[in-house]
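dumping this here so i dont lose it
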């Protein structure tokens, strides 16, 4: 069986629609500002730069997950130059779970627990693969394909006797 692969893109997320009005508001506010052309340009230019930067970042942002008989590879573009690899031998438990992104991890994105042993990779939604590592760390990997991921985990459990899968 082929490895499980999922690529989630931020541009398909609902929260993108919150960022677009922010850039538009900055541009509109600079338009309403009184002053000569230079003053207006100095106010308008940062709004334009912020808007373009947000759109470009959102277009490039994605979360790539691969699960195979070796382990789980996760890469959050723009934040990571190479994927994080979690080997099955380092995982004590792996299961699909419904979670609360804001309450448990402070929102969506690439989250590193500064004061906890929690890490999260999430674009949107509230379903994910929760890993408990043997060192006590918890890792949440968001998914839009929970059923397919669960089926692949069951396949690995039955075919390779990976005990961490619950």
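and the seq i came up w/
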């Amino acid at each position: 069986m082929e490895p499980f692969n999922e690529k989630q893109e931020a541009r398909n997320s609902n929260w993108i629609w919150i960022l677009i009005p922010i850039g538009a508001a900055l541009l509109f506010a600079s338009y309403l500002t009184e002053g000569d052309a230079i003053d207006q340009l100095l106010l308008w230019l940062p709004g334009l730069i912020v808007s373009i930067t947000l759109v470009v970042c959102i277009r490039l942002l994605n979360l790539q997950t691969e699960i195979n008989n070796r382990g789980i590879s996760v890469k959050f573009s723009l934040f990571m130059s190479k994927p994080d690899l979690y080997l099955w031998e380092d995982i004590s438990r792996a299961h699909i779970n419904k979670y609360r992104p804001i309450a448990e991890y402070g929102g969506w994105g690439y989250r590193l627990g500064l004061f906890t042993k929690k890490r999260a990779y999430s674009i949107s939604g509230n379903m994910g693969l929760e890993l408990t590592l043997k060192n006590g760390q918890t890792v949440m990997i968001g998914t839009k394909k929970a059923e397919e991921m669960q089926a692949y985990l069951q396949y690995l459990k039955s075919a390779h006797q990976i005990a961490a899968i619950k």
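The chain is about 35% helix and 30% strand.
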